[in-house]
Structure formats: structure tokens, C-alpha cells
């Protein structure tokens, strides 16, 4: 395999922005600094949920090493740093008392970004729900939008003046479906009614947070959804129908709610009876106008008919080369979602790729060819999408450094920077240097 030369800043339109992403629980070290317990701590402490039952107690110790980490982002030549705020670090019980040390930490972190010329792109929720709220049903509880709105208001009173952009919730599909229907993420439920309610409450919480921030006069507010190219495993009508249902749940439900103010029929078939009464009334908040949409994209999925019960699909292994996650590498999917989303949902609203990258079983000094090749193929898919008219304004790689990869613990390495989880030493990989070469120029 020869190493490709990655597209450089000068290959993109002049105002195009480049960046890297992380999230709070995956890097900070949640046991430190007075943060409250979250549903990820207890999910991880329950056998067989997470590889080796690992958790984010120390993670990358970013809480203490953030200055060096911000230096790495600056030296990469990034414009944007997409990071998240931990609700439980700021409000350990999710409501009421504030952990001053938590808010102070984010205050310093944001100032640190600005001092290095980085645009702070904040996410308010990247998956670590305070346990006290989980005890009350978490996303299944119809009060979540109120709790989330209060949290948003508190955070923005202190930090809102310095954020370049804000997205309330990272990946609604993961927060609701993956966590309440498939049971793979906290709180680990497998319950169709809980899933339906969580899906809706995630969107109404998003909408309420947007309204709170608008009322404060904030700008550049968006949403970040994840997408997976849905491909039929074979040519049979049953596989095509299974693929359509998968696509509707994963790729269309949330966009349809946010931009069309309704849910797709293919999803309502299975979920409508489980949605909260008068759920349609909440579309007034859910469709609150946005300034941009972020797309997280990694892979595709092959589908055939499943167990016979709605949604009646199952994943089938595909033929393409795979990453350490076992995810097929399919850059065409990114081009598809960028062009299709603009055509079907968002028109000329600015789009950003807010996550893209791959896990690899890295050692610190290897040539990192697989990751460079992956990034190259996906950045070129972005360039093609721009040529084809998609209003794509930026590309953000996942992730700055190796970190806590949720149910996979520390085993799956997504970083541009290698982290030794014993010494916590950071060492930029070849992909970091390859990106820096093109990002720092011009
Ligand atoms: C996304 C998550 C992110 C990370 C990557 C690999 O779904 O937003 O935290 O786990 O996948």
C-alpha cells in the first residue's frame, strides 16, 4: 500500500474549515474534579457491557493535560475544536447544585482555545447522563426537555459568549435507538416503547435547547446526526424492504423531525403506538431553525430480513476492507449523505462533517497508512460533494487522540495522536503529521 498525499487546505474552498473532535467522558477523567456519577459509569460496572469493564474514570486525563492537548490541536493547523461539556461535571445531580470546579474547567478550556486561535464548537450532551436523571428514566422521561433546557441555560449564562458554535446533542440515533432498543450503550435497554420515547424526547430536548440559546441571542446553532449507508445484502425484495426500514430509522427519522416536522411512515409503522400522546405538538420546538447541520459518518451496513418482528432487519457481513471496528470502508456513503441531505432536507443550509475517522490497532511509530488512506478517501468524497453542489463548509476528524471508545473500552484506537494508557503519554501518529502538512499551509 502506498501512502496517499492528503488533500490540503488549498484544495478546498477558501472559507472551508478543518478541525478535530473529542468528547468529555471519552477523554477527561470523569472520576476527577467533582463530577457526578453517570449512567455510563454504572453501565460499564455491569458485567459484559464494556470490554474488560473499562470506564472513563481516568481516560486520557485531559482534565489535567488540556493545555498540552490544545497545543496539539493548534499545531495540527486546525481551525475548529469540537468538544463536549459533561452535564454531570457541571451539575452532578443533573439539576440543582452546580459544581463550580466543573464550570471553571470549561471556562479555562474555552479561553485556552481562543488564545490558540481555535474556534470552540461545543456539544452539550455526548452521552454521559447524570445518574440522578437516569434514575428517573432519563431520556424516556417526558421531563427531560425541561431538565435539558435548564442545564443549557445555566451553561450558556457562563460560557455562551465565547462559543463559536453549539449543537445540543451528539447523535440522536445513538442516544435513543442504540441505547434503548439495541441495548449496546447506556442505559442498555432493549425495549421498543422506551426507544420510541427516547427518540422523541431527544429531539424535543434539542429543540428546547435551541430556543433557550436563541433567547440569549446566541448564533451558529446546529444539530449533529450520524449516518450509515444502508445497502441491501442481496437483490431480494425482502432485503430491499429491510434496508428501507433500517435507513428510515437510522438516517431519516431525526432529519425528518428536525427539518420536515414529521416522522417517516416506515418508522411510525412500528413506533407510533409507543410515542407520547400528542407528540406532534412538540414539532413546534423540534423544527426551531438551525444555522447548520453536522454529519458524522464512518461506514455502511448490509441488510437482509431479520427475525420477522418489526423492524425486521439484520446486518450481514460485507465484502469491503474493514477497520479495527469491523466497519467496512465506504467513502461513497459520505458523498451520498452530503448531496442527498442537502437535496432532501436542508437546501443551502451549511453542512459540516462533524466526525469521520477510523480505528486501527496502532503502535505509536508505525506509518499509519491505513488511517491516512481512509482520511484521504473521505476528504476526497467531500471534495466531490462540493463539486456536486453540497454546501459543505468544514471537515472535522474523529478523533484528536486515542480515547475511551464506549462499549469497546480502550481497545479501539481512533486517534491522530497515540495515547499510552499506562503513562498517558501522547505521541502524534503519521496521520497527524500528514494532515498537519496540508492543514498548516496557506
Ligand atoms: C461516534 C461517537 C464518538 C465515537 C465515534 C467512533 O458515534 O460520536 O463518540 O465513539 O463514533
CATH class value: Alpha Beta
Tell me about the biggest sheet? Answer: 9 strands, mixed
**Could you state the CATH homologous superfamily?**
Glycosidases
Helices and strands, in N-to-C order?
A: EHHHEHHEHHEHHEHHHEEHEHEEEH
Instruction: Give the structural class.
Output: alpha/beta
CATH fold name: TIM Barrel
User: What is the residue-mean pLDDT, rounded to a whole number?
Assistant: 98
Number of strands: 11
Total individual domains: 1
Total number of helical segments?
A: 15
Offer a quick outline of the entry.
The chain has 442 residues and is α/β, with parallel strands linked by helices. It has 15 helices and eleven strands. Beta-D-fucopyranose is lined by residues 23, 26, 170-171, 174, 226, 296, 355, 398, 405-406, 414.
Amino acid at each position: 500500500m502506498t501512502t496517499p498525499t492528503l488533500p490540503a487546505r488549498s484544495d478546498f474552498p477558501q472559507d472551508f474549515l478543518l478541525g478535530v473532535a473529542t468528547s468529555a467522558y471519552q477523554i477527561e477523567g470523569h472520576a476527577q474534579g467533582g463530577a457526578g456519577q453517570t449512567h455510563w459509569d454504572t453501565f460499564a460496572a455491569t458485567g459484559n457491557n464494556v470490554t474488560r469493564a473499562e470506564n472513563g474514570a481516568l481516560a486520557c486525563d485531559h482534565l489535567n493535560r488540556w493545555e498540552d492537548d490544545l497545543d496539539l490541536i493548534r499545531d495540527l493547523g486546525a481551525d475548529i475544536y469540537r468538544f463536549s461539556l459533561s452535564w454531570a461535571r457541571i451539575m452532578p445531580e443533573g439539576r440543582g447544585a452546580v459544581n463550580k470546579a466543573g464550570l471553571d474547567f470549561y471556562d479555562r478550556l474555552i479561553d485556552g482555545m481562543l488564545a490558540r486561535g481555535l474556534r470552540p464548537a461545543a456539544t452539550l450532551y455526548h452521552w454521559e447522563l447524570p445518574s440522578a436523571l437516569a434514575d428517573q428514566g432519563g431520556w424516556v422521561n417526558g421531563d427531560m426537555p425541561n431538565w435539558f433546557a435548564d442545564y443549557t441555560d445555566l451553561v450558556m449564562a457562563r460560557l455562551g459568549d465565547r462559543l463559536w458554535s453549539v449543537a445540543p446533542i451528539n447523535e440522536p440515533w445513538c442516544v435513543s435507538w442504540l441505547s434503548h432498543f439495541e441495548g449496546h450503550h447506556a442505559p442498555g435497554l432493549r425495549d421498543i416503547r422506551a426507544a420510541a420515547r427516547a427518540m422523541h424526547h431527544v429531539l424535543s430536548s434539542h429543540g428546547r435547547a435551541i430556543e433557550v440559546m436563541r433567547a440569549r441571542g446566541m448564533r451558529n446553532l446546529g444539530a449533529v446526526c450520524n449516518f450509515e449507508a444502508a445497502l441491501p445484502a442481496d437483490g431480494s425484495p425482502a432485503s430491499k424492504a429491510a434496508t428501507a426500514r433500517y435507513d428510515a430509522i437510522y438516517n431519516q427519522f431525526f432529519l425528518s423531525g428536525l427539518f420536515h416536522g414529521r416522522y417517516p411512515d416506515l418508522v411510525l409503522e412500528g413506533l407510533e403506538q409507543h410515542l407520547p400522546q400528542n407528540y406532534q405538538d412538540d414539532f413546534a420546538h423540534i423544527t426551531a431553525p438551525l444555522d447548520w447541520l453536522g454529519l458524522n459518518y464512518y461506514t455502511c451496513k448490509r441488510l437482509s430480513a431479520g427475525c420477522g418482528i418489526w423492524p425486521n432487519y439484520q446486518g450481514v457481513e460485507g465484502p469491503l476492507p474493514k477497520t479495527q471496528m469491523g466497519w467496512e470502508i465506504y467513502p461513497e456513503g459520505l458523498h451520498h449523505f452530503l448531496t442527498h441531505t442537502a437535496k432532501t432536507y436542508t437546501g443551502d443550509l451549511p453542512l459540516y462533517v462533524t466526525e469521520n475517522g477510523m480505528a486501527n490497532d496502532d503502535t505509536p511509530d508505525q506509518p499509519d497508512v491505513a488511517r491516512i488512506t481512509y482520511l484521504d478517501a473521505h476528504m476526497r468524497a467531500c471534495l466531490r460533494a462540493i463539486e456536486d453542489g453540497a454546501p459543505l463548509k468544514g471537515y472535522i476528524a474523529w478523533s484528536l487522540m486515542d480515547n475511551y471508545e464506549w462499549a469497546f473500552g480502550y481497545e479501539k484506537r481512533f486517534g491522530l495522536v497515540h495515547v499510552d494508557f499506562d503513562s498517558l503519554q501522547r505521541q502524534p501518529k503519521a496521520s497527524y503529521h500528514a494532515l498537519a502538512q496540508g492543514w498548516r499551509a496557506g
